[in-house]
Amino acid sequence: MKTSAARDTWVSYGRNSVGSGPTRTFFWDWYQRAAHGLELLGDVTNRAVVELGSGAGKQAAALARAQAPARVTAVDSSSAQHGRARELHADLTKLEMVHADAAAYLQQHPGAFNVCYSVFGAIDFTDPHTLLPAISTALAPDGLLVFSTLGHFHTGHPAETDARPTNIPVHQPDGTKGTLTRWVLNIPVWTRLLEEAGFETPETLTVNDPGTDGRPPIATNIFRARRSN
Q1: What's the CA angle centered on 169, arms 154 and 147, to 5 degrees?
Q2: Count of domains in the chain?
Q3: Which residues of 156-186 are buried (b: 16+ CB within 10 A; e: fewer)?
Q4: How is residue 201 annotated by DSSP?
Q5: CB-based burial of residue 44 (10 Å sphere; 0-12 exposed, 13-18 middle, 19+ buried)?
Q6: For 227, which DSSP code?
Q7: Gap between the Cα atoms of 18 and 68, Å rounded
Q8: What is the CA 61 to chain-centroid distance, rounded?
Q9: In the beta sheet, which residues pair with residue 171?
Q10: With 70 as the cut, is the pLDDT of residue 11 above it?
Q11: How many beta carbons lie within 10 A of that of residue 137, not counting itself?
Q12: Rounded to an integer, what distance in angstroms lies between the CA atom of residue 55 and that of residue 119?
């Protein structure tokens, strides 16, 4: 479901996260500073790539500038983020910004993509029982899914040991308090969900950041999974 401007939780977030100038560095980790980058996507030359929950399009733009994909499709359900992305990256002809619900869009494009990725994006905020099968549908045979997600809650509490979401408190555009549904799951749970959705057993990588300047330590889990043929 796409969001309306009146209740778009991502308005303030997007405004605060958009920097000036083009982004040429691709990060997977929470604090956007670890060494791992585009190499985790493999060779995307002449490949169709889709990002889910692309926000202001920084990662998708970095990919479009640094590599030679056939196209990069950046999907986001937030009207505010979609608008910012279009303004920031209008010069990139191989980058397509799509304002849509990720699962619905993927279901409408079976076999259309070679690579799918998400950086704390739609995979964090969409029921995996719905989204992961949709990703499998949209990937070509042997297609690759790569995504990064929280290894634990910001409070330090461990990730869920079952496939259940948590309501995260957020501030709405009008200043009131609200919640976002976020899926913070441990590695065995994500592995099971991926296999049930038609993926091979994933490769996993954990990036532990100690945090600085009053920011808490955060672990990022990165998954790479091939669609089963």
Answers
A1: 50
A2: 1
A3: eeebbeeeebeeeeeeebeeeeeeeebbbbe
A4: P
A5: buried
A6: B
A7: 24
A8: 14
A9: 177
A10: no
A11: 18
A12: 10
Q: 3-state DSSP: the chain helix, strand, coil percent, rounded to 5?
A: 30, 30, 40
Residue 107 is classified by DSSP as H
Q: What is the CATH number of the domain that holds 86?
A: 3.40.50.150
Among 104, 145, 139, 135, which Cα is nearest to 229's?
Answer: 139
Of 101, 93, 103, nearest to 72 by C-alpha is 93
What length is written for the chain? Answer: 229
Tokens 């994500």 locate to 190
What is the side-by-side order of every strand in the sheet holding 95-99? 95-99, 71-76, 48-52, 113-119, 139-150, 218-226, 203-209
Percent of the residues in the chain that have a pLDDT greater than 70, as a whole number: 90
Predicted TM-score of the model (pTM) = 0.90
**C-alpha span between 63 and 127 (Å, rounded):** 26
| Residue 14 domain boundaries | 5-226
Strands 203-209 and 177-182: unpaired
User: Each residue of 13-58: pLDDT tens digit?
Assistant: 444 343 444 567 899 999 999 889 999 999 999 999 999 999 999 9
Q: Report which of 94, 107, 14, 110 is spatially closest to residue 53, judged by C-alpha positions.
A: 14
